[in-house]
Structure formats: structure tokens, C-alpha cells
Target: GNAT family N-acetyltransferase
Amino acid sequence: MSETSHPTLREAEDRDAQDLFGLLSLCFADYPGCFVDPHDDLRDLRAPGSPRPNDGAFWVAEDASGRVCACVSIDFPEAGTAELHRLYVRPDQRGKGLGSFLVQAVEHHARERGATYMFLWSDTRFTDAHRLYGKLGYKRTDRRRDLGDISGSSEYHFEKVF
Model:
């Protein structure tokens, strides 16, 4: 994949569950104390092809060998509002514009469905992702939440008005 070409996004299917857990394991490995927990806080990844809440969607991107190398999802918690979830890019695929491509694809999808506001929550440890969100026009608010999960995650809130 060159810096200007990106894999085609497709809807996630249940057969992607193993690849998705592998993807998150690779991403989380960069952060001490960050663990993949399929039983409690990552239930949605056990059956990624299932319908998403609030008319949402879940997409994956595959590398040249057909393995999932990135993912992103979206839902619509209320009229005019979209929430970005599960943006993960495999470490060997970073720095090629794939994260930006995925966020822009989600924004396009949100606008098509009438959203004028998008928000997301991002683990406080994911500083590279925070830089990406800032570059794409998202502002970090003063909101923060603790998840009480196996990783002791705390998240920052980001938002963008279209």
C-alpha cells in the first residue's frame, strides 16, 4: 500500500473476530498495562458482523495478504450526532495516512446521514491518536471518564462540528 492508496473498506463480518483481536493486541502492546479483554469491555468484537447500536456501522481494511490491518466504527446516539469508535491501525501500517483515511470515511458516512457533530473517546495513553485527531480538526474537551476496565483505562473526549 502506497502513501496515496488505501485498502478498500468493507463491512466487518463475524469471521473477522480473530483478526480484530489480533489487531487490538498489537496496538495495545505499545502501551504498558493495556490489555485485550474479550469478555467484558470488548464484547462487540466477538461478533463484529452483528448489527451495531443506533444504526451504526463497523468497517475493516485488509492488507495485501487479506488480513485485517485496520478498523473503525460509528454509531448515531441521537439525531445530528455521530460517535466514532474502534479506530485502530496495525503498527506496521501506521504513518501511511490510513488513520486519516478511516476518519474521513466515517465523517463522510456521518454527513450522509445528517450528522453535523461527531465525538469520540480516546484512551489517555494513545497520544499518537490524539495528534491525529487534532490534525483532523477535533478538539479535546475538558471531559474525561474512567472505564473501570481490566486496563484501568481513562479516556479524553474529543469533538468536531462539521
Q: What stands out?
A: The domain at 9-161 is CATH 3.40.630.30 (Aminopeptidase).
